[in-house]
Amino acid sequence: MAYLKLFRDKLKHNYQYLDKLFKDNDIEWAVVTKVLCGNRDYIHEVINLGTHEICDSRISNLKVVKEIDPSVQTIYIKPPAKRSISTIVRYADVSFNSEYETIRMLNEEAKKQEKTHKIVIMIELGDLREGVMGADLMDFYGRIFELSNIEVAGIGSNLNCLHGVMPSQDKLVQLSLYEQLIEAKFDQKIPYVTGGTSVVIPLLMKGQVPQGINHFRVGEMLYFGNDLFSEEPVEDMYQDVIKLYAEIIELMEKPKVPIGTMAANPSGEMTEIDEEDYGKKSYRAIIDLGLLDVSPDFLVPDDPNIEITGASSDMLILELGENKQDFQVGDIVSFNLKYMGALSLLNSDYIDKLLV
Question: What are the transmembrane regions (predicted)?
């Protein structure tokens, strides 16, 4: 069976790197754990780093956090579904919101549970995912202010998550100005402006994040150590906190070109044939995972001589050429992961998860 390893020393190093960066800039931050898909061992390791806030988009994952350490502040980072209101109030100390009716229901549930539920009002800054339109924000906030068991802990926004709209200094200034307008009109302090995610960190490193942005929520850079602007590794960070390992279950020399009448495969793909490959052979290896677990697009073989040539539901095909590395059946092949690849693999029940 294929398996993942999470390297605790590399995770700790990346955490300490980011913690220092934020402390130097007088910014608070929370760790996003949604890529860990509720894995108890991995979440426990994140809590052991010393974080006091954890963000996730699955309430079952926040339940795991509370079971491990009830003192950690849990943040639900997408607009709540109405059918989940009771569990969100129970397991999430804070939730991100953009719909008044949902917030009203959170207020009623918070009364029943004898709690004050904190919310972050999400504001649309152009990526067109969740968020209240800026022109409607004052009226929106005014209605929420009247709810007895709701506390507005902050305002925030998401960029780059849907249409790829990149953050900029101007957009972050805009978000900060919304906070100032709310505070001036309602004479109410908004503690946090959470405008920062992994994609905003390169701006912070360049001194281009306005002082009004005082909270970040970070997942991808913690686990993968990449600059999401340049798509290059961040110096002094590890890119392989999480790695994939898979066993070779077949290795043979075979023709490079399929033989027979061609049609679409079960994924609806038609194989494109390079005529120069007719009559040629190469070594092909099969490893023990497939499309059910991950898209090959999100895997990067550690060995640069290995090429991923295709995948079926539960097998993935590697092109080894002349196999100068002398791979054998039973050998383990390792891969670095892109974010979405790690997310898929951690969500797969067929992949073992180890802590190293």
Answer: none
3-state secondary structure of 341: helix
Instruction: Specify the DSSP class assigned to residue 22.
Output: H
pLDDT at residue 311 greater than cutoff 70: yes
Q: How far is CA 12 from the centre of its chain?
A: 18
Kindly give the residue spans of alpha helices, DSSP state H, lying in 122-236: 137-144, 169-186, 201-205, 220-224
Mean pLDDT of 95-124: 98
Single out the catalytic residue among 34, 78, 243, 353.
34
Q: Output the CA angle 308-309-311, nearest 5 degrees.
A: 90
Classify strands 73-76 and 94-97 as parallel, antiparallel or unpaired: parallel
Per-residue pLDDT band for 280 (boundaries 50, 70, 90) equals confident
Beta-carbon-side half-sphere exposure of residue 347 (alpha carbons within 13 Å) = 15
Give the pLDDT confidence score for residue 256 in this predicted structure: 76
Distance CA 280, CA 7 (A): 41
Q: Which helix (H) or strand (E) element contains residue 153?
A: strand 150-156
* pLDDT computed for residue 263 by the predictor: 62
HSE, side-chain direction, 13 A CA sphere, residue 345:
31
* Assigned superfamily of 7-233: Alanine racemase (3.20.20.10)
> How wide is the angle at C-alpha 156 spanned by C-alphas 155 and 161, nearest 5°?
160
Where are the chain's structural domains? 7-233, 242-355
Residue 153 near residue 97 (C-beta atoms within 8 A): no
CB 217 within 8 A of CB 29: yes
CB 339, CB 324: distance < 8 Å: no
Residue 194 to residue 213: CA distance in whole angstroms: 6
Residue 55 β-bridge partners:
32, 75
Does the active-site annotation cover 280? no
Which two tokens mark 46?
Answer: 């994140």
pLDDT digits (tens, 9 = 90+) for 257-269: 676 666 666 666 7
- Eight-class DSSP state of 327: -
Give every CB contact of residue 265 below 8 A, 6+ residues apart in sequence.
Answer: 271, 312
The token duo for 222 is 């913690």
